[in-house]
Design goal:
Rossmann fold, homotrimer, 41% helix, globular, 2 domains, alpha/beta, four-stranded parallel β-sheet, 15 helices, five-stranded parallel β-sheet, 395 residues
Amino acid sequence: MGEFDSFKYQLDRPLDVKLSEFQRNDRLKHLIFAAQLTPGLLEKLRRMADMIRHMSRTRQGNMQLKNLLAHRRAMLYFTQPSTRTFLSFMAACQILGITCNEVRDTATSSETKRESKADSIRMFSSYFDVIIMRTMISEFSECCAYLMNQLELQEMRSVPIINAGAGADEHPTQALLDMYTILRTFTHDYSRESKRSRFIELQASYPELVAGPARKTYLFCGDMGRGRTARSLATVLSQYEQVRMFFVTPDHGELIMERAMIDKLRARGVEVHEFNSLDAQHDGHPILAQTDCLYMTRIQREHNSAQVEAELGQIDLSPFKLTPARASVLKTYAPILHPFPRDSVVGEIPTSIDADPRAMYFRQARNGMWIRAALLVHLFDAAEELMLIYGQFHQ
Amino acid sequence: MGEFDSFKYQLDRPLDVKLSEFQRNDRLKHLIFAAQLTPGLLEKLRRMADMIRHMSRTRQGNMQLKNLLAHRRAMLYFTQPSTRTFLSFMAACQILGITCNEVRDTATSSETKRESKADSIRMFSSYFDVIIMRTMISEFSECCAYLMNQLELQEMRSVPIINAGAGADEHPTQALLDMYTILRTFTHDYSRESKRSRFIELQASYPELVAGPARKTYLFCGDMGRGRTARSLATVLSQYEQVRMFFVTPDHGELIMERAMIDKLRARGVEVHEFNSLDAQHDGHPILAQTDCLYMTRIQREHNSAQVEAELGQIDLSPFKLTPARASVLKTYAPILHPFPRDSVVGEIPTSIDADPRAMYFRQARNGMWIRAALLVHLFDAAEELMLIYGQFHQ
Amino acid sequence: MGEFDSFKYQLDRPLDVKLSEFQRNDRLKHLIFAAQLTPGLLEKLRRMADMIRHMSRTRQGNMQLKNLLAHRRAMLYFTQPSTRTFLSFMAACQILGITCNEVRDTATSSETKRESKADSIRMFSSYFDVIIMRTMISEFSECCAYLMNQLELQEMRSVPIINAGAGADEHPTQALLDMYTILRTFTHDYSRESKRSRFIELQASYPELVAGPARKTYLFCGDMGRGRTARSLATVLSQYEQVRMFFVTPDHGELIMERAMIDKLRARGVEVHEFNSLDAQHDGHPILAQTDCLYMTRIQREHNSAQVEAELGQIDLSPFKLTPARASVLKTYAPILHPFPRDSVVGEIPTSIDADPRAMYFRQARNGMWIRAALLVHLFDAAEELMLIYGQFHQ
């Protein structure tokens, strides 16, 4: 980091101490860590995302939304390449009328003129009302949040910072959209019919089923070592009661879930089991048959050394593919998630699964747009105005 | 195409069979081929483009237009470089309030993570309401249209696809803007005076003159081999009655109009003649004196092999330049078109022609903006709303 | 320039003769030279920038502003890399509802197809309503302005041109934002308390103090040789009465203010003195103690030859750094300006100065946004409409 040395003291503190600095009363000032996504906040954001989603179905609703934050301008500072997250944030901003600006290539920026990163960020905060950032430097967004807090203390202009993914580390808004998909699924309101009947119908087959993310089994399959999205999601889910997690990964040091993470999850009361195949059994039954939610991931190839790449090439990946036969073992309501992109060569989810009603991965992407819009409404403290226009819309 | 192999059966069918799949009743679902531009559709689009053009002359009209599709978001997927077509579509979207997003470099996209093209496109269709695409792969947009049709059948989200030029192949929206310029010119409403008098005036000198594109002679000059715009336009014009076409090209295999195309035009009743100079005669009179519309093109240099480049370097291009002397032979009303860019080194149209009232090429570019806006209104089924606000505007 | 040869005659005329061609009555048609920024125009723009700034403090004000020029589209043609100026213009456009388009890389443009620059610019003027340009070619924007004037004479479509910095030459909108900061400071309205009392308070310590930029001493420190911003600002300031300028630079031919410029300033009645350290004295007193406004600049490293780079490496830059000790010598009201970016390695302004109430450089950047918005309102002749909505806003 070098230039952010002045924040070294803050960076080195334990996470719990940091979190309160990114809050203002009940509300986020910045979103930097997945750990900020408490069940209470998630429920608040889910409700707003639902409103935004409903309103966007009509022209009138869309026009009201487009007015909501039309006086705001966003900077999307994406120096780590990303199409999906970038476009999702763009769309989220556009839904709310926020004007977007972008910096995607530091080569064209003043950083080549030896401007400090802090000066660049402060310049952005002069022109724009929120900075959404994705960089290779994992602590960059955290430092920017400290910079903004410091400016606020000095009664200078300060804007919210959103961490849109940093290096191989945190990706809190991905966890947010995964959670929104899970929350939506486990209210069982996806069917076009009334919510109630679908839930009652399911309870006939699954009497132990309850609404919401608690008391469920989550199966994570693929790359737990480098896949920040699985780690962020597991962290958030560990806040709910009686959660069980199955981690299904190849037996390779780069791909298994790291020990510290498993210990942390267990310390929070999560029941964790590890397996080396989707066909594995637990307590005498197939793990897939016990799964309430399946989270598939791609084996990442971008950041490998030649040696790791060679080793990964030796691994038989067939036990980590969701074949139609395996999908048939899953519970009838269990959503199939994937943070995308999926690997079209490996085919961890073959396209033959796409028509399965439990395949949520395309809807999941669209959910990302709604929940990111909700996050922006929250950060700009416009929740009340949203509820107001939603009330008018519904009349 | 590889990844789009599942559409191979559809790709291999004859064009006529395909066209109906890109329609819904009277309306386009996607614009993929110039052959979709029937005289009926062109007339419909022309009327809408005229309305948009008139409304854009005042602040009030512009504000009404900017509201028309303000609830829509477009993806401009332009992985084949293009400034002109890109900016023209941007401007068209902006006139209607459509928010624009772009992908111009596949290197930054998830395709580097082995995401399939189909997944990328479906992701775009999750976030955006129309996909406007220009790629090096000629059948890409066609396959995307099939993908969208398939999603529609599965009652999934599906959006219109616009082919904004693909490889060396089709460029239907260029044909659209060329036709709009021709339709505008041949109603003779360009003069600031009343339409009527100008037409009557012309009929005094040209008693055989009728309004509209039928019964006219079109002279295409330059590069017919690689110039997709001339081929697309000739295809569209061949639908009108008693059309005659003069193709004036250097006598080189890469530059002449291909035999199959000429056969197809003749089969449709077009009278076709080929020449090797703008000074050529036909039936004892200069071809320029018989021309109702002159379509100049640039000799393309981008895609040549070293050998072809050397051969082209040998050709005397002076017979294919519109000198002021040659322009003086043209009919007094004959519009001079050029799809642009023109070659400032070769000078197929020297700047000394720019002030000629028949020089339409800059207006042609601006026409592209209006007619592309009309196309978007059509694809979003907003023609009635446009007519409504136009009615209010005119009161 | 080559392609713009037809404008050679115009280019070679003296500046005074040119200026009138970029005016229409009292109003700018194009902004090409800093010399166009007369005290009268600056006062007009300052008032508009103040209105825009005040309105932007509330949601309602912002929404009214966003409507003001919502029917306009801008082209930001920035082929010389620039983040700061680019984003500032983007934000300025967005405040007023102007839709932005950009070309930042000529490699993707039709210029690779041998299109002339004049054709490219005329194409932009077909689609957009103003062209804001920053290029490596210093006379490019001037030629574009001539091209637009010529089209206007021919009753063709013509749009305003804004020079947003060209090569190592003029950067009139930087001078504009510097002047806006100076004008704001010297009305002494920065304090949250009433304007009046602050001014009276200052006059107690500085009885000779008057409002406005006249009768002041401006100290320019750093790189006067390549820093176009200092030269542009000095040119503008030379129009005010009884102005004194101190140029403090290393004694190197590349860095000192050029002789012709100093002669020109003196011819206009400016009292000019040169020094080689911020600690220098004049008339027996420290120059810093006599300074009403301090303009710091960065020693530019981008455009140096290896030899110059080596020579600059030998120079002791410590006499040109604003240490806290030196800042304490400055008058209590003297604003500290810097066109930014500052050099974080050299540290001509260390971050320890940032909390000083006289440090204006971040506010200066934000001022750039307001005054550029005012410039756009002026060029689009919307000053009356701005005053109208400001009147409504204030009620």
